[in-house]
Amino acid sequence: MSATGQSTLPRFRFHNDAYRFVFEALHHTQQRLKRPIVHDVDDDRAHITGPELLHGVKDLALERYGLLAKNVFSHWGVKSTGDFGRIVFELIERGEMRKTDRDQLTDFYDVYDFEDALDRDYKINVSKVG
Q: What are the domain boundaries of the chain?
């Protein structure tokens, strides 16, 4: 997935903040994976797969919201990784993201369980304490 530009987000299936967060997670993931930011829509070097994006979603959510990440997602109406896929494909339909021929909504299904990834497996980073 790659962004085609930012615009005002009208109300869709999920809370507007969920759509904005997907864009932020996309950029976070591109940086984390050291993918170039490209401006040519035909350049796939910056492409992020569904599972890659979902791991970026998890990382950014834990960094930003900590143990509240699952509650924030729930407030947005996002209950599973598949819901993030639905958000991405809505953005694709609206022309705000693009995909390759290999990208499918099913790429987002059951990548991880929110309870495990955002709660049970959460580790508090104490490296900066002291």
A: 14-120
Beta strands in 1-130 (DSSP E): 2-3, 97-98
Tell me: the pLDDT tens digits for 19-74?
Answer: 999 999 999 999 999 987 766 666 677 789 999 999 999 999 999 999 999 999 99
Tokens, residue 107:
């790429």
Q: Cβ distance 83 to 26 under 8 Å? A: no
Contact criterion met (CB below 8 Å) for 18 and 87: yes
Beta bridge partners of 2: 98
What is the C-alpha separation between 39 and 103, in angstroms, rounded?
20
CA–CA gap between residue 55 and residue 111 (Å, rounded): 9
Tokens at residue 105, please?
């909504």
CB 57, CB 17: distance < 8 Å: no
Q: In Å, how far are 27, 66, 126 from 2, measured between CA atoms?
A: 9, 26, 34
Here the tokens at position 83 are 């819901």
